[in-house]
Amino acid sequence: MGFRVARWMGLAAVVGVVTPLGATAAVADTPEADPPEDRPGGWQLVHEEDFSAFDPSGDTGWFPDKDGPGSPYDVDGYDNDGEYFATVGGADFQDQLDTVDLQRRSFSLGDDGWLTAELAMREGSAEPSFTQDSVPGSEAVGLFDSPAHDGGVVLRSTDELPEEYRVEMTLRTIDFGGQRDGEWDYDGLVNGYTPSDCKTNFPWAASGDFSRPECEWFDVTTDANGFYFLSIMDYDRPAPHNNVFIHNHRKVVMDGYNRYEYTGNGLRYCDIDSGELQPYEWGSGNGVNMLFMTDDRRYADQPGTEYVMPSECGTEVGGGIVSQVDLMPEAMPDRDYQFAVERRDDSYVLEVSGEFRHVGEQTLRYEQPFDDGENPIWHYNQTSEEYDGQYNADWEYPSPNGTYVDDDVWPEGSAYPDYFLIGQPHMNFYEGSASIDDVRLYVPGT
After folding, report:
1. Which residues contact 442 (CB under 8 A, 6 or more apart)?
2. Strands 325-326, 276-279: parallel, antiparallel or unpaired by DSSP?
3. How far is 138 from 119, CA to CA, in rounded Å?
4. Which listed site, 125, 134, 339, 360, has its alpha carbon 20 to 30 Å from 297?
5. pLDDT averaged over the chain?
6. Residue 381's CB: how many other CB atoms inside 10 A?
7. Average pLDDT rounded to a whole number, residues 299-316
8. pLDDT band per the 50, 70, 90 thresholds, residue 34
9. What is residue 96's DSSP assignment?
10. Would you say 316 and 323 are in contact if contact means Cβ atoms under 8 Å apart?
């Protein structure tokens, strides 16, 4: 059973006090199991899914959709057909998009259909899927299969999450790159990708020459692979989109960003034992990144919000990404990992438990207020009454083809729903498979 006993770790088992910035250790000994319906901390279970009765409903089948006006997936200017790309890419972007036949599919599952799978791909590519499977130690799991980088598959909450909640899931297996036994290239794969000389970020670059043939765009196989363990998004109907769009619509996220043979200072690990940040080579490229998004722009010349990154090595705001811990995929499914996000008492909490490389069994738990006066969590307000417009701005992105202006990125009177998302949401990056079970939603007990 590995570390599955930690699934029901209560708050009382955590050693140390977590502060919003520069959090101290939140490390727990192996706890006794508590029944899910009696979670410590006053949480009442309202939905759970273990995928033992996999009975999807409302399957749309595959249908064409480019996120255009009238589409249920139309959100804003960063959409797959968005004005951002039309501006920075000019007529060349539209010519390229015209060659791409985008397809979507969705279906619901779980009690009362509380979960929805969203899938997307390019016509003629390998189909992504979300299906029932089994792994040793678990009779049923939900399996994400994203066999091509130009498709995506996510599992989300069907409805907007309540004012306060805790959502959990258990990761049973993961194969989205990173090293295996010290090797980046394993099982005939390159960082989890099937080798190819034409796997690029086409047609959704943040800048550059949009007229190039597809195979001359940025090669994703020698850059990064990854997976979203658990994220909270800020818009209705989360689904796969291009990576620029996704990076602008996260409130908080725990994800993997597995950089192939990376040796720079843009990614770092926290060594819990020493309390010191270590270079990327210290880990295995299977890091967990626990990020609170804030209102600053991470990049001056392209979309993307800035990161607040607490760890046992202190709190970093911006700069190189900090991975708080390093997964051990080789040990799965004998070992597994539990992820949770809470929204309660004007704060978000990110939590992960399991046995990690270098540092052993840990539970890490970080809390960040909606607004600490310095780094407000991006689009935290579910209602207009929660926010007064003080962080509103117009973001401009100049390019040779013109300047795209994103007006009123966070205006007074705005409101942003919370939806959770698990999976692979990028339609021009990432490839692999992962299995999960025990997805649960709690609300405060009465």
Report:
1. 39, 43, 44, 45, 46, 165, 166, 167, 168
2. unpaired
3. 25
4. 339
5. 92
6. 19
7. 94
8. low
9. H
10. no
* Residue 25 predicted with pLDDT over 60: no
Question: Is-contact 153 119, C-beta < 8 A?
Answer: yes
pLDDT digits 0-9 by tens, 153-209? 999 999 999 999 999 999 999 999 999 999 999 999 999 999 999 999 999 999 999
Encoded tokens for 218: 């940025």
- 100, amino acid identity: V
Sign of CA dihedral 156, 158, 162, 168: negative
Cβ neighbours, 10 Å, residue 409 = 18
Range of the domain at 112: 4-444
315 versus 446: which is more confidently predicted? 315
Ranking 17-21, 384-388, 417-421 by mean pLDDT, the lowest is 17-21
Phi, psi values for residue 23, rounded to 5°: -60, 145
Cis ω before 444 (30° cut-off from 0): no
3 or 431: whose pLDDT is higher? Answer: 431
In the three-class reduction of DSSP (H, G, I as helix; E, B as strand; rest coil), residue 419 is classed as strand
Read off φ and ψ for residue 215, nearest 5 degrees. -75, -5
Cis peptide before 333 (omega within 30 of 0): yes
The helix or strand, by DSSP H or E, that contains position 106, with its residue range, turns out to be strand 102-109
Per residue in 386-412, pLDDT (tens digit) is: 999 999 999 999 999 999 999 999 999
Token pair listed for 157: 């909450």
Percentage of the residues of the chain whose pLDDT score is greater than 70: 91
- Name, in order, each residue with C-beta under 8 angstroms of 99's C-beta and a sequence gap of 6 or more: none
- Answer whether residue 431 shows pLDDT above 60: yes
d(CA 379, CA 232): 11
Query: What b/e string do you get for 145-166 counting C-beta neighbours within 10 Å, with b at 16 or more?
Result: bbbbbbbbbbbbbbeebeeebb
Domain count for the chain: 1
Read off the pTM.
0.92
Closest residue by Cα to residue 386 from 408, 420, 418, 351: 418
What are 143's strand-pairing partners? 131, 435
Q: What is the pLDDT of residue 137?
A: 87
Asked if 341 contacts 230 with a C-beta cutoff of 8 angstroms, the reply is yes
Q: And the tokens for 422?
A: 């698990």
Q: Which residue bears the tokens 């795209």?
A: 404
